[in-house]
Amino acid sequence: MNYVIIGGGVAGLGCVEGIRSVDTEGAITLITEEMHPPYSRPGISYWLSGKLTDSGMPLREKDFYDSLKVIVKTGATAVGIDTKKNFVTLENGETVPYDRLLIATGGVPIFPPITGTDGAPDPDRRIFTFTTYRDAKEILTRKDAIQKAVVIGGGLIGLKAAEALNDIGVQVTVLELMDRVLSQAFDDIAGEMARKRLDRAGIVVITGDTVDEVLTDGSAVTGVRLRTGSEIETDAVVVAIGVRPNLDLAEAAGLTVDRGIVVDDTLTTSDTHIYAAGDTASAYDIIAKEKRVTPILPNAYRQGRQAGRNMAGADETYEGGLPMNAIGFYGLDTISIGLVNPEEDQDLTVLTRLDEEAETYRKLVLDKGRLLGVVLVGDVARAGIFAGLIRDGVDVAGLEERMLSPDFGHVHLDTDVRKERLGR
C-alpha cells in the first residue's frame, strides 16, 4: 500500500501514527510546503518571545520519521491531484502516486481588504500574519525596526501574537471589532478577565473598532487609520483575524466541499481513495450534531489518526469532534469546551461562579442533566474530566453545584461511571 499525506500539521502527524498502528510496512510519503516536519503551531508565540528554542519546536524526535520509514518532503507544494490515475503533482513537476491519500492542508490566514495593503502579508513593509513558524521568523528578523505594533484581531491567534511581541519589548495595541476579546471561544466574563490581565501587562486593547487603512511612507508601515477616524502610530501590523479552510486542491480535484471537505463517518471524502482531516475537513461535531469545520489542534490530531487507521483498513467510525480552546496569558490559564455561548431561545441551564479576588471563573452549560459546555478561567486542572463528561454525554443531574466547586473530581461521580471512566 502506498500512502500519501498532504499537510505537515498535527493531522498529518496523526495520520502517520494511525497508519503505522495498523500497517507497519506500507510506504508513507508526507508532503509539506513548510521547511520543517510537523511542529508546534501554538509554540510559535513562545518561540518568538524566546521561551522556546528551535530544538523545542518539532512534535517528534529527529529520528521519528526514519524509524517509521516515512519519506518527508519539506518545502514541497502540492498543486494538483489526479483522481483517475491516483497521483499528486508537486510544484516542481514531480508526481507522487498513491493508493490512499490524506488531504490535511489546514487553514490559511484570513486577510480582509484593507486600504494600503495588497490583501496579503508583506514582511518587507512589516505587514504580517501569525500562523506559521515562517511568520514568527519574519517578525523576529525585523525586530530591531519594530518598537510599536498593531495586532488586528482579539481572538486566540491575535492575543498570543500580542503577548509574544510584548515579551520582546514591543509596545502593542490589539484591535478587536467585536465588543470583547475572545468573543468566539469564550463568554463576556472570561473575555473581560483576559483583557484585564493584558492591561496589567501593558498591552492596549481597543474593542469595537478595526483598521480601515494601513499608512506607510512608501517602504514600510508608519501607522493605521481606524474606522472611527483616529490614527495610531505603529511600525508593524499583524493581521490575526483567523483562518479559513484551504480547499484549493480539493475543489480542483472535484471533491465534495461545503465550508470544508465533506467526509463521512470514516473520514472518507467523496472519492473513496481520499480522506481529509484537520482544519480543512467538514466532519461530525458532537455538540452541533452536524458536520462542520472545527479548527482546533486536538480534533486535528484525532481526525488524522483515525483517518490513518482507516486508510490502512481499520474501517472504524470517527466519534466526532468537540470544540475546545485553551489559552493562557501571563499566568492566567483559560479553557472553553463545547457550547459556551448558548442562544437565549435554546432553553438551557447556565450556572456560573466568579471569584474576582482569586481571578477564577467557572461556567457550566447544561441540557436536562447533560453537560454541553464549560468555561474555566484561572483554575483549569479538571478540564479533562469536564471534556470527558461532555464527550460521553454522562448524566450529571444533581451534581451541578458540586461541579462549580474547584475541588470537583472523579470522586463525586456515580460509582459505576467512575469505575468506567477510570478504567479506560
Spell out the key features of this protein.
globular, 11 helices, 424 residues, alpha/beta
Can you lay out the helices and strands and say which pair or pack?
Blueprint (H helix, E strand, L loop, with lengths): L1 E5 L3 H11 L6 E5 L11 H7 L14 H4 L2 E4 L4 E5 L4 E4 L4 E3 L2 E4 L3 E3 L17 E3 L3 H9 L6 E5 L3 H12 L3 E6 L11 H13 L3 E4 L3 E6 L4 E6 L4 E3 L2 E4 L3 E3 L2 H5 L8 E2 L11 E3 L4 E5 L4 E3 L4 H15 L12 E6 L2 E7 L10 E7 L4 E8 L2 E8 L5 H10 L7 H4 L11 H8 L2
Parallel strand pairs: 1-2, 1-7, 2-3, 7-19, 9-16, 10-11, 10-16, 11-12, 18-20
Antiparallel strand pairs: 4-5, 5-6, 8-17, 13-14, 14-15, 20-21, 22-23, 23-26, 24-25, 25-26
Explain what this protein looks like in three dimensions.
The structure is a single chain. The chain is 23% helix and 29% strand. The chain has 11 helices and 26 strands. Strands 3-2-1-7-19 form a 5-stranded parallel sheet. The chain has a 5-stranded parallel sheet with strand order 9-16-10-11-12, covered by helices on one side. Helix 1 (10-20) packs parallel to helix 8, helix 2 runs parallel beside helix 4 (133-141) and helix 2 packs parallel to helix 5 (156-167).
